[in-house]
Amino acid sequence: MSLQSTPNSKASNRSVRYVYLISVILLALTGFGQMPIFKRYYIADIPGLGWLAQFYVTHYIHYLAAILFLALVAYVIVDHLMLQKKQLRLTASGYVRGAIMAGIMVSGLFLVVRNLSGSRFAPEFIIFLDLAHLGLVMSFLLAGAYCLIRKRRWVAQR
Amino acid sequence: MGQEISRRTFLRGGIAAAAGLAAGSIPGAAAATAQQKEAQLATLLDISKCIGCGACVEACNETNAAKYPDPRKPFPRMYPNRVPVEDWSEKQDVDDRLTPYNWLFIQQATVNLNGEEQEITLPRRCMHCVNPPCVKLCPWGAARQLDNGISRIDSDICLGGSKCKKVCPWDVPQRQTGTGLYLDILPSFAGNGVMYKCDRCYDRVADGQLPACIEACPEDVQTVGPRDEIIQKAHMLAKEMNGYIYGEKENGGTNTIYVSPVPFEELNKAIETGKGKPHLEPVKDTMAEANNLAAAMAIAPVAGIAAAVGKFVKLARSKQ
Questions:
Q1: Residue of chain A nearest B34, judged by CA positions
Q2: How far is CA B57 from the centre of its chain?
Q3: Residue B87: C-alpha distances to residues B81, B164, B173, B192, B266 (Å)
Q4: Hey, which of A60, A67, B80, B203 has its CA 20 to 30 A from A53?
Q5: Which residues pair with B46 in a beta bridge?
Q6: Which residues of chain B does A40 touch, with a Cβ-Cβ cutoff of 8 Å?
């Protein structure tokens, strides 16, 4: 029996999936909430979703979800390298999604630095960051939808 | 006299900035120019000097007229129809509040000073925050902060979503429908014009000139200079007149520092506030709450790695 197939590790994998889903959903919702669209298109009128039109609230929750997501990504990478690498390999769709995700994280971290007082990025670079972050998120969601429909997994048995 | 000192300091700052830019192109000079780039310019407004003549408002209008919107009509029909049309093009003469055609106005207050009723007037415009939420939270990068502390909205890029106004503690930016980039994208479904506000005459400043409102003031109400110096002057002035300061700490610090002989709490009660008429209330640092999480974001991957290593060690021990 390999290390990763113990009952404990199965429960751990399930937890990873839940945390991944929760953080990605929160990040996507609050990320799109940075654009003034939820009020315009009545989404913030849905009971319980009024907070989506409050920019400082969505900004704060976006940061909280990003903290959760970054911790999770670090955990999954190290866990894969230490425990799963011998049994599992990253699939082609896994590489594609991983690369997009890396781009989202890097552009997002630059934007976090941009928001600190005293940061001095060139205006053109900030526009690039904003558009790259949004474009990569759209690509990630499209790739995720494609993989869900076509049942493409992140990893496969070696 | 104060104005003369201010002019000299200001021009010196301009020359230093130009030298910094030139040196910036030399490899290895980045560190040397970094400190020069730090200096944000702030303005000090001595309210006790303001006579409410409106010369600053007039000068602002004359100088910035070319930047004002020229909307295309009829406006595109917008969906859903809750999206408000904001049209100031027929009300360009309005000068008692902020509009896309009026970036500076005079606010008036009748207050009791030393037992006497007194009329106080003060010029109001963008505060040019040190860490401006309008700039930092613009989803397109249409609002930008210059190294000299000026925050301005690029009317060629702005889509008029008005987020900058909603996140501004003073609701300063004002929208004009029917102009700007959104007309070339999906005018009925996204965007709603362009946001306008004081850009502290960034183009004049780049040419080594003073902002028009400062130059035109017959009473030398405003002085401009490096923020540290302006803060020092503001404290000296406040001490001299036994007065009060607004703008130094508000929203984490701004580049517009008011000094008044009357407490701002009193002034705020006496001025007319509302749409296009900013308040004088205390303002917490709006960017601070999220920015305080940045450190946690740096630590988060370490926590993830520790959890994975902990799991590995636990499993390895259970196998022994």
A1: A120
A2: 17
A3: 16, 18, 14, 11, 34
A4: A67
A5: B259
A6: 80, 82-83
Nearest-by-Cβ selection for A71 from B163, B303, B309? B303
Locate the chain B residue with the closest alpha carbon to A68. Answer: B300
Chain A residues in contact with B21 (beta carbon < 8 A): none
Residues 6 or more apart in contact with residue B144 via CB below 8 angstroms: A123, A126, B135, B151, B152, B153, B154
What 3-state DSSP class applies to A94?
A: helix
CATH class of residue range B2-19+33-299: alpha beta
Q: Helix or strand or coil: residue B206? A: helix
**How many CB contacts within 8 angstroms connect chain A with chain B?**
128
Rounded to a whole number of angstroms, the distance from the CA of A40 to the nearest CA of chain B is: 7
pTM of the model: 0.88
Amino acid in the structure at residue B238: A
Q: Which of B314, B305, B307 is nearest to A3 (CA)?
A: B314
Tell me the CA distances in angstroms from B210 to B103, B197, B214, B253, one per residue in order. Answer: 16, 18, 6, 22
- A130 touching chain B per CB within 8 A: yes
The domains of chain A are located at 1-86, 87-158
Report the alpha-carbon distance of residue A118 to residue A81 in Å, rounded: 38
- Number of C-beta neighbours around residue A8 at 10 A: 14
Structure-token pair, residue B201 = 């005459």
The answer to whether the CB atoms of B308 and A114 lie below 8 A apart is no
Distance from CA of A35 to the nearest CA of B (A): 6
CB-based contact B293 A60, cutoff 8 Å = yes
Which positions ≥6 away from A114 have C-beta within 8 Å?
Answer: A121, A126, A129, B136
Reading chain A (158 residues) residue by residue, the pLDDT tens digits are 344 445 566 777 888 999 999 999 999 999 999 999 999 999 999 999 999 999 999 999 999 999 999 999 999 999 999 888 788 899 999 999 999 999 999 999 999 999 999 998 999 999 999 999 999 999 999 999 999 999 999 888 88
The full 3-state SS of A9-73, as one line of letters, equals HHHHHHHHHHHHHHHHHHHHHHHHCCCCCCCCCCHHHCCCCHHHHCHHHHHHHHHHHHHHHHHHH
